[in-house]
Amino acid sequence: MGALGRLILGRPTREFAPRARPVIYRIRHALPLLAPDALSSVAYAPDEILLTLAAGGVVALTLSPWVGLAIAAVMAVVVTSYRQTVKEYPEGGGDYTVAKENLGLRAGGLVGGAAMVDSLLTVAVSVSCGAQYFGAIVPALEDHAKVVAVALVALITLMALWGIKALDQTVIYAVYLFLGALVLLGVAGGIGHLNSTLGKSPAAAFEVVPTAPYAAGLTTLGAAFLLVRAFSSGAVALTGVQTISTGVASFREPKPRNAARSLTFLGIMCGGLLIGILLLAQRVGAVFVANPTTELAYPSGQLVGPEYHQEPILAQIAAAVFHDSWPVFIIVTALVGFLLVLAATTAFRWVPALMSMLAQDEFLPKQFSRRADRRVAAHGIITLGIGSAALIWLMNASVTRLIQLYIVGVFLSFTISQLGMLKHWNGKLPLAKTAPERRRIRSSRAVNALGLALTAIALVIVVVTKFIYGAWISLGLVGAAFWVMLAIRRHYRRVADELKLPREGREALGLPSRVHAIVLVSAMNRATARAVAYARASNPDTLEALTVAVDMARVWDLRRGWVRADLPVTLRVLDSPGREITRPLIDHIADLRTRAPRDVVILYIPEKVVRHWWERFLHNRSAARLTSKLRHIPGVVVASVPWQLDQPPDPKSN
Amino acid sequence: MGALGRLILGRPTREFAPRARPVIYRIRHALPLLAPDALSSVAYAPDEILLTLAAGGVVALTLSPWVGLAIAAVMAVVVTSYRQTVKEYPEGGGDYTVAKENLGLRAGGLVGGAAMVDSLLTVAVSVSCGAQYFGAIVPALEDHAKVVAVALVALITLMALWGIKALDQTVIYAVYLFLGALVLLGVAGGIGHLNSTLGKSPAAAFEVVPTAPYAAGLTTLGAAFLLVRAFSSGAVALTGVQTISTGVASFREPKPRNAARSLTFLGIMCGGLLIGILLLAQRVGAVFVANPTTELAYPSGQLVGPEYHQEPILAQIAAAVFHDSWPVFIIVTALVGFLLVLAATTAFRWVPALMSMLAQDEFLPKQFSRRADRRVAAHGIITLGIGSAALIWLMNASVTRLIQLYIVGVFLSFTISQLGMLKHWNGKLPLAKTAPERRRIRSSRAVNALGLALTAIALVIVVVTKFIYGAWISLGLVGAAFWVMLAIRRHYRRVADELKLPREGREALGLPSRVHAIVLVSAMNRATARAVAYARASNPDTLEALTVAVDMARVWDLRRGWVRADLPVTLRVLDSPGREITRPLIDHIADLRTRAPRDVVILYIPEKVVRHWWERFLHNRSAARLTSKLRHIPGVVVASVPWQLDQPPDPKSN
Questions:
Q1: Which residue, A464, A557, B151, B335, shows the most beta carbons closer than 10 Å to its own?
Q2: pLDDT of the residue at B611
Q3: For residue B488, what pLDDT band results from cuts at 50, 70 and 90?
Q4: Which residues 253-292 of chain B have a CB within 8 Å of chain A?
Q5: Is A539 on the interface with B (CB under 8 A)?
């Protein structure tokens, strides 16, 4: 690892974030560490609900609390089902483990692929949304949300690489401060509402212009379709709940019970916050539309035009509630933005663990299974950073567009996981001995059946209503990830089959008849002498030194040195009409192999080991090329005999 | 070499341009192959002379033929001295060999560095100038000279990589056509002048506005300084003459005589063409200035402004001479542009040879000495292509600015080479036996003394007058190249010293006391079995199999397989508290080395050889990292035992 590598990856001795053994936390620390993902989705879900309903005009907007209620109901089912999951799979692993154990490895692979894509999107969504909140405080940033978001991703990536421990502590504080800010917002808003001193959102002054299909008024069918679309957008609030099921191992004993409690608590919190935010948004007249330029108008009927910057809902609420004390508005909005950005760290903590699980099942290159190895984990972290930054850039940091990509993968995992749990109970039922046990299993199964029905419906709605808006992109990405993972697994399986020892393994373990040692030499020096000595020490059946005659003057020098050294090894000079080095050697060795196919050829290559990276360009170039070609000839072993240059002489070695 | 490599480098079987043994040509083919460099400089030198004189206004322009005459005189001396060089150094090698043999390796290195930089600049200059001529025919290209020039460099680079034989033939034709075009131009111009039917250059209608220091009129001192600067710019016409001295080997026997003849012929041609072009330019009123926007005015006194495009001198002459038949104008101008672009191929032919010479003297990495190896030669060609394209881009394809960089290196080489020849004669003089021989040596020495005086003066003038215009850049580049070359040579010398066998070499050749073989295993399979079999076949003093316990399940699998295979080798499992692979192994082996420092450890690593490049990411990653770390421990040999995946089973091997 060079200086640059050290700069990017941090010092090798510093502790690395994805540790080999998970650190154990109390609930009051574990929950905030695992919660930001779910809490952040509560921050952006209301925007998506209002945005969808706004297409139907002002009347449609009054329906928003009902949409929130529907989502909270689904969340209750999902939370209940994940409580069961953490109890049944206390080792963690989440949806991937559930799918793999109950529906087979391929289903697991599909969930794994979806989880990889979702981890990119969760970073992209929450950082982009965080950039919006910072833009609401510092208007100069509003026009550069894309750049701000990518810079934040870069910062988080570096912090994850350095494994800064303070990051965990910061996340815990940020969650409590965020919750505090929202409670403050709710209490102050409620008091204001009762005293009738509640302000209005700055956007409340505008008229919402219904978009084309709803311009003529809202039909019953139109309203139903709008509600369905609003539900499918708002369903993004459900994301992040499953994170706890992946982190069971981080809780104190009894792990499953603590995790289940945390889940319930998180579910109640998220559901309550979502409905609360939607109600407050209605009271303050918050308005959020897809295209402010064409959908917002002054009371005079004139469109607001491209100059207008739309603030996210929580910023609008904060502006209304704290309209008479802007420092509080700034603090509350900043805390929301801060939590959104830190929510991305959940994915950075999770991805190396996910890749390690996938690698253990041979869905990814084997080296990823060693996530304690900082270099290996760094690959996952860097990929996540670059991938999510690319998505932000391509989608112009548009939260709405990114969410349309995001929820497909989330609901795909949800649905497969529910199906897996259903099968899990079906398998467990016949083994139950007592009636209460059977009853318990049946009722658990009922929860998952309901969960399956709800999430499957939501998945269908999401795919149908969002297909052209981006769901096709995420389906494509998930499909591609799945395809690559299957290809990798197939490769490993094929290799394992090829390498499997036959039942009567003895003949495969037979020794080669004879050993031919060849020392490759180009000049007579200490490195050559060492290679010859080592080759002789291994007592081969035949031993010769070999050189290629590219430059006759050098060959003569070599011959002279050889004679002077008086070595008991013959020096053979290979002709090279084309003045090439590799070809004649390959031919010679291949020839040797053909004449004695049951023998083994060991080629000793003296190699100079340099201390500085740039010196590598000055040595061993032909040896490197030769080695890479020789690897394809069976029965040839390449033994590199190193000579360490520039090192204090080792009196003990020769 | 992958598909992309093949696409860029061409098929391995196709013949490659820089051949191992030079092809022998008759004079009528060898001369045109070596001449384009010199001829092309005659095409752009007049522009530079007129451009410098134009600063002094119209009066100064009348002096241009005198400047041409001075340059022709210097050329006569330079040609005479190079005639001597080719006779004394018939193996070729040019200035580098002369400097090295007479002034020592460091002087050779300096000339070599200058030659490397000049090869970049000769390509940049002649292609940029060629782009100007094409712009004179196709006005749409005029605004994009930079892009056109870079595209042409890319094309030439690819042709050089592919080693297209037709290129040589094309160059020969292009030279004869270029000469034919210039003779036609001269004859038609001369007849036109006698009949008074000669047209005027389109630029003759403009007034030349003298620049600031000369605006008040031309003083004697001012005129002298202008003349000196014009001479130093026009001296670029001398470049390319030395090319013949590097290509003596390409001539038929008697090589030195044929080369000397060619030199004389080339010198007369270049001198004649230069003076002829300057005279014709004066007759047709050709005007060429550094900044047309500020230095050219309509007769009304109004400046021509940035819209005006200035054509190069030969295009202006052709336009005037063939003012009544534009097809002839187009053909003549295109032939000039064509030759200028093809002149760049000389550098592409020369650079691999130069790098080979420098590498033989250890100024460059050794692999460059094998220029018959297409991969090695390709490095030089690609470097030349990218470097010259970068110079064109940075200098905005401005011929004038590039020439200011170019001539410094050229005259540096000229001067050192003349000094070398002077020393050569001084060394030869005492050995001469007869009086005529001594006389001949003395007169030869006088030529080189004169040459040294002239080129040294020219070098000083060039450096002084051009320093701030770019000479500092090329001096910096030459210095950097020289510094890198010296560093490389120092490195090789130090390594050679370190590796030198002691006089009483016997004890250095002593055998290690014992051989410890270690087979690195991670799973029980055929690849492992093969590695164990090969290790056993080499009859080591001790033999053990080693694995690192990262994943206990895998270790148990391995142990079971080991017992079932009933191998007579113990399997040792190393603990890894940090779940790392490399560290425990390194520690174990280092420990072994400390306990028995006179022994040698051979580590057998079973390695899976894959067929597709992408499969490399799936295997041997830990082995590769381990190997690169083990190289730094003395007395450890890494023997890789390959298992070729996916290959037809070889019944003969085990």
A1: B335
A2: 77
A3: very high
A4: none
A5: yes
pLDDT for res B29: 83
Q: What is the mean pLDDT of residues B252-275?
A: 90
Nearest to A290 by CA among A462, A42, A48: A48
- Positive or negative: CA dihedral B288, B292, B294, B299: positive
Q: Cα–Cα distance between A618 and A628 in angstroms, integer? A: 18
pLDDT score of B616:
73
Q: What is the pLDDT of residues A73-82, one digit of tens each?
A: 999 999 999 9
* Partner B, chain A 451-510, Cβ-Cβ below 8 Å: 488, 491-492, 494-496, 498-501, 505-510
| C-beta atoms of A505 and B565 within 8 A | yes
Residue pLDDT, tens place only, B128-186 = 999 999 998 888 888 888 999 999 999 999 988 887 777 888 888 999 999 999 999 99
Residues of A in contact with B627 (CB under 8 A): 640
Residue B568 has pLDDT above 70, yes or no: yes
**In this complex, which of A524, A534, A540 lies closest to B512 when CB atoms are compared?**
A534
The Cα-based distances of B572 to B552, B558, B639 in angstroms read 14, 11, 19
pLDDT in tens, B321-333: 988 888 899 999 9
* Residues of chain A numbered 604-623 and touching chain B (CB < 8 Å): 604, 607-609, 615, 617-619, 621-622
User: Residue type for A498, please?
Assistant: E
CB distance from A534 to chain B under 8 Å?
yes
Number of Cβ within a 10 Å radius of residue A601: 24
Report the percent of chain A where pLDDT is more than 90. 34
Which stretch of DSSP H or E encloses residue B571? Answer: strand B570-575
Q: Nearest-CA residue of chain A relative to B579? A: A372
Please provide the DSSP assignment of B432-451 as one string. Answer: --SHHHHHHHHHHHHHHHHH
Q: What is the pLDDT of residues B461-487, one digit of tens each?
A: 888 887 877 888 889 999 999 999 999
Q: Are the Cβ atoms of A621 and B561 closer than 8 angstroms?
A: no
Answer whether A397's CB lies under 8 Å from A368's CB: no
User: Nearest CB to B508: which of A494, A499, A529?
Assistant: A529
According to DSSP, the residues that pair with B296 across neighbouring strands are B208
How many Å apart are CA A396 and CA A131, to the nearest integer? 12
pLDDT of residue B17: 37
Complete domains list, chain B, with CATH: 3-492 (1.20.1740.10), 512-644 (3.40.50.620)
pLDDT at A19: 44
Which chain B positions have a beta carbon within 8 Å of A368's beta carbon? Answer: none
Residue among A491, A538, A600 minimizing CB distance to B615:
A491
Instruction: Say if strands B570-575 and B600-609 run parallel, antiparallel, or are unpaired.
Output: unpaired
What pLDDT score was predicted for residue A18?
Answer: 41
Q: Is the pLDDT reported for residue A165 higher than 80?
A: no
Q: How big is chain A by its Cα radius of gyration, in Å? A: 33
Q: Does B598 touch chain A (CB under 8 A)?
A: yes
Q: What is the DSSP letter of A24?
A: P
Mind listing the pLDDT tens digit for each residue in A497-506? 888 877 665 5
Q: A366: distance to nearest CA of chain B, Å? A: 7
Distance from C-alpha of B181 to C-alpha of B184, rounded to nearest angstrom: 5
* A511 in B contact zone (CB under 8 Å): yes
Task: Kindly report whether the global pTM for this prediction surpasses the value 0.80.
Answer: no
**b/e map of A302-341 (b: 16 or more CB within 10 Å)?**
ebbeeeeebbbbbbbbbbbbbbeeeebbbbbbbbbbbbbb
